[in-house]
Amino acid sequence: MNRSARPLLPYPGMRKMVITLLLGTVAAPAVASGQFTARKILISNDATAIRATEGGGKGKTIVEVPVTKKPRVLRAVPASLAGIFEDAGRLYSLDPLLLAAVARQESRFQTRAVSPAGARGVMQLMPRTAASLGVTDSFDPRQNILGGAKYLRMLLDQFRGDVSLSLAAYNAGPGAVRKHGGIPPYRETKAYVAAITRDYEQAR
User: Fold this and answer.
1) Which pLDDT value is given to residue 21?
2) 60-66 and 49-54: which strand pairing?
3) Which residues contact residue 44 at a Cβ distance below 8 angstroms, ignoring those fewer than 6 apart?
4) Active-site pick, 64, 106, 188, 201
5) What residues have CB less than 8 Å from 143, skipping those under 6 apart?
6) In angstroms, what CA-CA distances link 165 with 152, 193, 199?
7) What are phi and psi of 62, to 5 degrees?
8) Which of the residues in the chain have pLDDT under 50?
9) Which of 43, 172, 190, 201 satisfies CB 3.0 to 4.6 Å to 176 for a cystine?
10) Catalytic residue flag (residue 106)
């Protein structure tokens, strides 16, 4: 991620709470006295806290809110691929962490991985599946990840948003899921769904 583009308050659900707290703390004394004096307030954050400082960066800290929630990160995602997962997530309304968890299980993020069955690239797309998704080069990480995201979106729509069934279908095929009325009783598929679910839940 481009550090210059990092949001000021990067943790989900905190923006409204922090801004409300800061405004309430700064404005309350002035409102109570019936007076208001404009003051220069700098709001900043680092890995440990979000702060409101009067008079600029070296002024008096008025409010400090500790940051306790860890950022959403999936282990071992290469920096060169992180932005692609974000783009694919936005394009297909998927959590990038879920996509990255699938990629980690499929290929360990190896862009030129080829399975014994012939699946290729980061998201391990079979040639026929890749062609149906509009992927012309499965070894191009952007094409491959976007293709895998599109396929996962299709499976989620097909299985009414059920993540476990969609992951099972990604591994064993949607026909196998329909045939067995759920996750197929294949050791590989059950382990696959469990591993991705574990990684995803830990990252969330």
Assistant:
1) 41
2) antiparallel
3) 8, 50, 51, 53, 57
4) 106
5) 135, 136, 137
6) 11, 9, 17
7) -90, -45
8) 1-31, 36, 70
9) 172
10) yes
